[in-house]
Design a protein that fits this description.
This protein is of the alpha/beta class. It is about 25% helix and about 25% strand. It has one domain: Rossmann fold (3-Layer(aba) Sandwich). The structure holds zinc ion.
């Protein structure tokens, strides 16, 4: 589990933290928890998400439990650099939908002394590493993998199984379209 002692929140020191996992694993909740804690410490916080994710709202990062913080939707990862001068902590949600340039953007921000917290899906519904997430995990100072609960057996779930037809990788999810499954149940589902 995520080790608090690794998080040097009081030091103005750049770092990259990645929070990854399947759908319904609480990634966004964990991102919001860290960002709120930084806000309580009077650090300036800015949150970005890809413009593609307009499921609930154009301006808020909203987790499934409806907690939210105002955020800025951006079309391209490069825009984050332009909008992050004077910011101490940058949060990025749904990072899997960003272009591959996001990795370099996060590196540049951290090199400038900014704490960058990135949340995103580690794999798509076919268990393929998603967008810039594998590269982000590689360059991160700290990676937290969170898990959902398998809807079939109650074990920890790693996979976001799509229960509606469609091959498109980018399909925004809700409980009607995806379910979290563990490895055993995921393989049983594929065979059935
Ligand atoms: Zn299971």
């Amino acid at each position: 589990m995520y080790n608090e002692s690794n998080i040097h929140e009081t030091h103005r020191r750049g770092r990259i933290e990645v929070i990854c996992g399947s759908m319904f694993s609480g990634k966004t909740e964990e991102l919001l928890r860290r960002l709120r804690r930084a806000q309580f410490a009077r650090q300036t916080v800015e949150i970005f998400k890809p413009a593609i994710d307009t499921r609930y709202s154009n301006e808020e990062v909203v987790s499934h439990d409806k907690n939210s913080i105002l955020s800025t939707p951006v079309e391209h990862s490069g825009n984050i650099l332009l909008l992050s001068s004077d910011v101490e902590v940058v949060g990025i949600d749904e990072a899997q939908f960003f272009d591959k340039g996001l990795t370099d953007v996060c590196q540049q921000l951290a090199d400038q002394g900014i704490r960058v917290i990135v949340a995103g899906l580690d794999m798509d519904f076919k268990r393929v590493p998603f967008g810039p997430m594998p590269d982000l995990c590689a360059i991160a100072d700290d990676v937290t993998k969170v898990h959902a609960i398998c809807v079939r057996c109650g074990a920890l779930a790693n996979y976001s199984h799509r229960i509606v037809a469609g091959e498109k990788q980018v399909m925004l999810g809700e409980m009607q379209e995806y379910q979290p499954l563990c490895r055993i149940c995921y393989n049983q589902e594929l065979r059935s």
